[in-house]
Amino acid sequence: MGMKSTQVQVLAVLLLACAVAAQESAGSEAERRRLLANGLGNTPPMGWNSWNHFHCIINETVIRETADALVSTGLSKLGYHYVNIDDCWAELNRDAEGNLVPRKSTFPSGMKALADYVHSKGLKLGIYSDAGYLTCSKTMPGSLGYEQKDADAFAAWGIDYLKYDNCNNGGSRPTVRYPVMTRALMNAGRPIFFSLCEWGDLHPALWGFRIGNSWRTTNDINDSWESMVSRADENEVYADYARPGGWNDPDMLEVGNGGMTKGEYIVHFSLWAISKAPLLIGCDVRNITGETMEILSNEEVIAINQDPLGVQAKKVRMEGNQEIWAGPLSGYRTAVLLLNRGEEDSEPITANWDDLGIPPDTLVEARDVWKHETMKQYLKNELTTTVGPHACKLFILTPVMPAQ
Ligand code: GLA
């Protein structure tokens, strides 16, 4: 039975609609890939940010002296390259042409001069704006409606990193506002690391990788144990979404700000390292103590964070106060963190190969990256160690090939 001409017409229209839809989705897919093509963030970013220690009390001297200190302490050589200015760097009002104006009383030399200085030290300069009408401090404008103008200014100044906050946005969705800045940065033509600071409100791990190099998964951290471990927990849920080029961000480091013990700061740095979180120092590097240096400059822990495989560790076992976090590293190695969340007692904690995804009976060499010691005995099927209250141990396990 043949089709009537009206049926043929309906079919033709339907086919055309399908073809258009297919083309559109291919177009937007290509567009999405193009959005991300800045080539940055193949490993989590490392550097410093002004907010956790200085809040709004910043000026160009603090930024220059911090750049100097990153170099003189040796931290820059370990990978801490970004010097990131947070909120409160601009005048409340744009100029007559609509440009952002660096605050005259605190940044009188302007951002180009500051970027030149930071670059002359072999470092990179980061800046802050907001996908809203005002930033969170309400002391300076956000970039909503001015994305291209601001991105062009950032590129012209030589900015290398943009943290983009989410305050005072008029209520529209971040998935609408953030990609506009992504496109503006791409148009501006300078590779600028794009850090989405949306606080995890709309599960940015699910869409952030298309438009940014990192995305906050949590509200702001403060300098306390409870705040720190809860950020790590909230961030862990999204482990599967981290990958080279795009990272979950549980907020910046508080190490060295004084609110936690040394053992707690070691837990903080260890959790951030294995979670492939940005390692953005949040203390006053100009007055850094030996103890804080010891933590932030542990090259073995940094190497876990910067491992080329780029896989975020997960919580693989929880029992009472005890937790095991683990994740694969390059070269068939495994990073394993044994954490005691209890407040009072030391506890023996056991990580089984089964929990870690290591095949049974595999012989393993274990290196304690805080003690900088390799265990004399090879291990089989489990690692047991005693861990103090609010403390952790962090090991790299390397399989040992049986002798032929
Ligand atoms: C928000 C962000 C913080 C910081 C402040 C600045 O709270 O989440 O990281 O940038 O704004 O006002």
Automatic annotation (TrEMBL):
It catalyses: Hydrolysis of terminal, non-reducing alpha-D-galactose residues in alpha-D-galactosides, including galactose oligosaccharides, galactomannans and galactolipids. One of its GO terms (cellular component) is plant-type cell wall. The keyword Disulfide bond applies. Residues 319-397 form the Alpha galactosidase C-terminal domain. CDD domains: GH27 (cd14792). One of its GO terms (molecular function) is alpha-galactosidase activity. Residues 1-22 form the signal peptide. Keywords: Disulfide bond, Glycosidase, Hydrolase, Signal. Pfam families: Melibiase_2 (PF16499), Melibiase_C (PF17801). GO terms for biological process: carbohydrate metabolic process. It comes from the Eukaryota. InterPro entries: Aldolase_TIM (IPR013785), GH (IPR017853), Glyco_hydro_27 (IPR002241), Glyco_hydro_27/36_CS (IPR000111), Glyco_hydro_b (IPR013780), Melibiase_C (IPR041233). Its EC number is 3.2.1.22. Belongs to the glycosyl hydrolase 27 family. This is Alpha-galactosidase. The lineage of its organism: Eukaryota, Viridiplantae, Streptophyta, Embryophyta, Tracheophyta.
